Amino acid sequence: MNRFIIAEPQNCIGCRTCEVACALAHPLPGGEDMLSPANFNPRLKVIKGARVSTPVLCRQCDDAPCANACPSGAIVRRDDSIQVLQERCVGCKTCMVACPYGAMEVTTVPQAAGVLKSRAAKAVALKCDLCIDNPAGPACIASCPTKCLHMVDQQRMAAITKQRREQAALDVPSLPL
Amino acid sequence: MKKVITVCPYCGSGCKLNLLVENGKVVGAEAANGVTNEGELCLKGYYGWDFLNDTKLLTPRLKQPMIRRQRGGEFEAVSWDEAIAFASSRLKTIKEQYGPDAIMMTGSSRGTGNESNYVAQKFARAVIGTNNIDCCARVCHGPSVAGLMATLGNGAMSNSICEIEDTDCIFVFGYNAADSHPIVARRILKAKEKGAKIIVCDPRFIETARIADLYLPLKNGSNMALVNAFANVLINEKLYKPSFVEQFAEGFDEYKAMVAKYTPEYTAEITGLDPELVKKAIRMYAQAPSATILWGMGVTQWGQAVDVVKGLSSLATLTGNLGRPNVGVGPVRGQNNVQGACDMGALPNTLPGYYSVTDDAARERFAKAWHVDSLPAKVGHSLTEVPHLIEEGELKAYYIFGEDPLQTEPDLGTMRKAFAKLDLIIVQDIFMTKTAMMADVILPATSWGEHENVFSSADRGFQRCYKAVEAPGDVKDDWEIHSLMATAMGYPMHYNNAQEIWDELRGLCHLYTGATYDKMADLGYVQWPCPTEDHPGTPWLYEGNRFDTPSGKALLFAAEWRPPLEKVDADYPLGLCTVREVGHYSCRSMTGNCSALQTLADEPGYVQIHPDDAALYGVKDQSLVWVSSRRGKVITRANINPRVNAGAVYMTYQWWIGACNELTVEHFDPISKTPEYKYSAVKVEAIADQSWAETHVRETYSKMKADMRKAALN
Questions:
Q1: With an 8 Å Cβ cutoff, are A145 and B186 in contact?
Q2: What is the mean pLDDT of residues B499-528?
Q3: How far is B439 from chain A (nearest CA, A)?
């Protein structure tokens, strides 16, 4: 099972601290140091509806529609998560269309000056990567002031499922079967 | 990398954080394990520090003293000697010609700290000889201070922020914790997890309403009627505690008579609330073993505000929810040090430590300590009275310290006209602001992070901020600037550091005597009253149900409901209410210069409007619209929002272009003189040519920024 980050909506206060933490944890190549509307690309988005506030982000689907749809093999499974190999991304946006959670965003970044300098921009497909290269773990989870974001891995899922089953057993009324 | 402990300079939650300093520059912030924040911060705490690096995203930092020899002329950079001589000689002339009461001053409820507010009010009282000093408590929790002083004898939160999570019932009235104090919102969530009942009274479906057990969407402007209805049910259903009332309260008979007609059925038309819902809510509050009332600007920014505060305080008294842990009344302070500015006497009616200026013995004691013959006994003017007093010729000089009234006061058009009539405007600040642009003298100060100081958090907690970096340019600490001004005006004043000032204050105020710098070292937290050095401080007030009123009893009080001043009509059919957003603070001179915060929200801001109203006025989501009142007209962006009620619109007050205070009405609570920011009649009009509107906003904004930059940088 892939690991994934999910929020408890009842504890989200819609403050967007996670969005900023995410954007700062993933600086885009060639961009300026300071955040600006032009380079603000958080991989999770806080949605405020009529009755709910919650960050929405990649569910790291085990049978990932984005990976299945990608024509250039840029989306792969690695370390129990779905990761994008940016060097292979051609910016076709098929993954954006395929994702049922709206968790993928394709954008372009200025190309780092190479020998040939043939291209001015490089496409990137941005989604939650679980801050996989950050030894401190996911930036959003650490920054959330109400601690509504959680990493769910196989162990945690098993613990939750076990607890739910136990609760379900207790809730069963005596049945005359 | 160096880590420097400080307190967040934004809301009043009092969050401790570490500024990360590299090569003399702040490069980051991390949460520290402070008493109120327990290792958590919100986005302003984490990302609200880079204004210290003078990003110039919004306005440039003030780095040199400047004077303007002629109104409308250019600023001229001068030496400190020349600036002080220029300002002090003019102030002296005005004092000689018109008397000390022709001079008005402000304290600063923001990043400067308690010591400088103490020195500012000392300058007003001992040097100028006036009580004309006020701070922005006037425009926020002034009614809470006035109301609670009268009913309980202390104007602050009765209990601590930490206790909120251990109460059994939280009664939220006109208070949007998620946007104003995320770290307090966190305590509300924790209380919910621990099983507390949550009741929310607010016209908007705020974040806390999402987790509420009962949500009461009252009509804008019906607060007093609802509070009276609560009291009516408490008494009629015998839900109150007669023994508590008998022993510890007074005024019950008058109170009972006043609320007698306010049955939930009678108030239903005023509040728009089902009588059964009102009864259910107050039963839930009364039956909880412990209950806490939290309120904010939704209670205080009305023409009838002090009365409502007294009414809320009376609900706590009736149910015995005072004088013990995890209960009480909680006016949660908005700005980081608005509690502190009040504690330091930056108010027209109190000396430091809340001694009344009419108290002869206290005045004599302060006069002796400050080496003057006497101190003024006449209560000074309020901040909000300033424009009228200028028009009437009573005020000639305004010494504005760390405030931006030309952004934050109501009816800015009237304010600007009045400002033009002043003989002298002195602005002491860290950034160029709309107010500083009008100044005759600009005295540039060190910022939070560049000096040591003490802040008071919303729950009376004193905490220390340490200095992280050197200030840029030729700037001075605020207390040093006031000292130089005092000395130039013939009153020698000199302090070597902030601690000397703090110790002088402690020596004069019994409430603070035990709060030493040592006790507040690092993460130390000392809640006043702290009368002696071996006293641990006071997390909750009124032990033994002894109140700080003259009689020692809590006063029960109710008043007849008064509707808001302005009425909506065919021309102006919507009620405008000004509110906060989580990413920006006050006039935004600080947060607007922070890259992350400016990225999340920028000009021209938003007007939140219900989908039905948007459809009625042909307004599309995210489109630019005109919002106008009888006083002005501004352009802003529509946010079609199902969480707001139809018939009302909501705007935040920090924008220059979408400046809601161009629209707000100048109407005050008769006691606290707090403006009715929460209700002005407006209309919203769609703009057909959106590309013109977008260009107009962009160009106007660029020009405003360029003008400020030019003025600040000479």
A1: yes
A2: 97
A3: 32
Residues of A in CB contact (< 8 Å) with B are 10-17, 19-21, 23-24, 34-37, 40, 48-53, 143, 145-147
What are the tens digits of pLDDT across the range B621-672? 999 999 999 999 999 999 999 999 999 999 999 999 999 999 999 999 999 9
Query: Which of B46, B55, B642 has the CB atom closest to A34's CB atom?
Result: B55
pLDDT number for residue A29: 77
Contacts of A23 in chain B (CB under 8 A): 596
The full length of chain B comes to 714
pLDDT tier at A28, thresholds 50, 70, 90: confident
User: Of all helices (H) and strands (E), which one includes residue B26?
Assistant: strand B25-31
Quick check: A118 pLDDT over 60?
no
List chain B residues with CB under 8 Å of A36: 595, 598-599
For domain B2-53, give the fold. N-terminal domain of TfIIb (2.20.25)
Predicted local distance difference test score (pLDDT) of residue A175: 78
The domain limits of chain B are 2-53, 66-139+345-462+473-512, 142-332+549-555, 574-713
Q: Given an 8 Å threshold on Cβ–Cβ distance, is B189 in contact with A11?
A: yes
- Average pLDDT of the segment spanning B54-76: 95
Q: In this model, does residue A149 exceed pLDDT 80?
A: yes
Average predicted confidence (pLDDT) for chain B: 97
The C-alpha of B213 sits at a distance from chain A's nearest C-alpha, in angstroms, of: 13
Q: CATH says B574-713 is which class?
A: mainly beta
Indicate the pTM of the whole model.
0.95
CATH no., domain B66-139+345-462+473-512: 3.40.50.740
Which site among A8, A12, A17, A54 would you substitute to test the B interface, given the most B Cβ atoms closer than 10 Å to its Cβ? A17
Task: Give the integer Cα–Cα distance in Å for B359 and B550.
Answer: 14
Min CA distance, B188 vs chain A (Å)?
10
**Tokens read off for A88:** 């292979």
Cα distances (angstroms) measured from residue B362 to each of B350, B493, B607: 10, 21, 48
Q: How many CB atoms lie within 10 A of CB B579?
A: 22
Using DSSP's 3-state secondary structure scheme, residue B329 falls into strand
Query: Å from A171 to nearest chain B CA?
Result: 20
Cβ neighbours of B626 (radius 10 Å): 16
- Contact A145/B205, CB-based, under 8 Å? no
Omega prior to B529 cis, within 30 of 0: yes
Q: What is the ipTM of this complex?
A: 0.93
**Using the beta-carbon criterion (under 8 Å), do B205 and A35 form an inter-chain contact?**
no
Instruction: Name the nearest CA neighbour of B35 among B335, B325, B543, B459.
Output: B459
**Average pLDDT estimate for A115-120:** 62
What is the token pair recorded at A165? 């089953």
- Rounded CA-CA distance B709/A92 in Å is 43
Q: Mean pLDDT across the stretch B81-85?
A: 98
pLDDT, one tens digit per residue, over B123-133 is 999 999 999 99
Residue B613, amino acid:
D
The CATH number of B142-332+549-555 is 3.40.228.10
Please list every residue in chain B whose beta carbon sits closer than 8 Å to the beta carbon of residue A52.
210
CB contact under 8 A, B599 and A36: yes
Q: Give pLDDT tens digits for B438-497.
A: 999 999 999 999 999 999 999 999 999 999 999 999 999 999 999 999 999 999 999 999
User: Nearest Cβ partner of A17 from B46, B192, B595?
Assistant: B46
Chain A residues near residue B210 by CB distance under 8 angstroms: 10, 51-53
Distance CA B603, CA B512 (A): 42
